Amino acid sequence: MAGHSHWANIAHKKAAIDAKRGKVWSKLSRAIIVAAKMGGSDPDTNIKLRYAINDAKAISMPKDNIERAIAKGAGEAGGDNYEEIVYEGQGPSGVMVMVEILTDNRNRTAPEIRKIFEKGGGKLGATGCAAWMFSRKGILTIPADQTDEESLMEIVLEAGADDVSLQGDVFQVTCPVEAFNDLCATVEAAEGLTAESQSLGYLPNDTVTLSGDDAQKAIRLMEALDDHDDVQKAAANFEVDEATLAAMGG
């Protein structure tokens, strides 16, 4: 929607800043280690590892870092046992939130996430309280200066994409989870196209538009969740008008 920015786009810009100080790299390294430990070091046969590597490449994580994480995971018979959890909750102004967690201590992480929600004006909810508002999708973003919408649609629809939309200065391409790898390969092979990000995530089926103090509260909650070491990704069903985002320095 023109004049508005979804949380996913705001978060992507923040991730680029976080990557410079290694915070995102640390989280993605953990995801790669766990995927390699669970399914082996070959991304051709280990789809979870392939997705984790895609996420890492999308924010320019160095190849050496990726390879070290794979080697560590593949050679780690013991060590920490990480658990994947999805928490659901409600933020300020009725915003619905999905939080993907990778933790080695559920008993530590759960109360910490609950506290973040409470401090942010929301509450951690029961399983299913927010999931109905979201769909699990493959998501790619492609800079709008690389192509036009019609040309992009011709390329990606044949590869399984189900939607292309202009989100600020990028095109967002979405697809069913099962089409994600084919779509990524198609975009990589297309002349003149380079995905800015590519990952699996939760997309809201509908959104609420926030402005002013409501928007600031929602963004602060999401940033606090993103900053937690055990949080891999956090998704929400709100968007912010560009005037408010500009006033916040976004």
From TrEMBL:
Keyword field contains Transcription regulation: yes
All copies of domain TACO1/YebC-like N-terminal, residue ranges: 5-76
GO MF, one example: DNA binding
TACO1/YebC-like second and third domain boundaries: 82-238
One GO-annotated biological process of the protein: regulation of DNA-templated transcription
Major site of localization recorded for this protein: cytoplasm
Keywords: Cytoplasm, DNA-binding, Transcription, Transcription regulation
Protein name: Probable transcriptional regulatory protein Pla108_00600
Organism per entry: Botrimarina colliarenosi
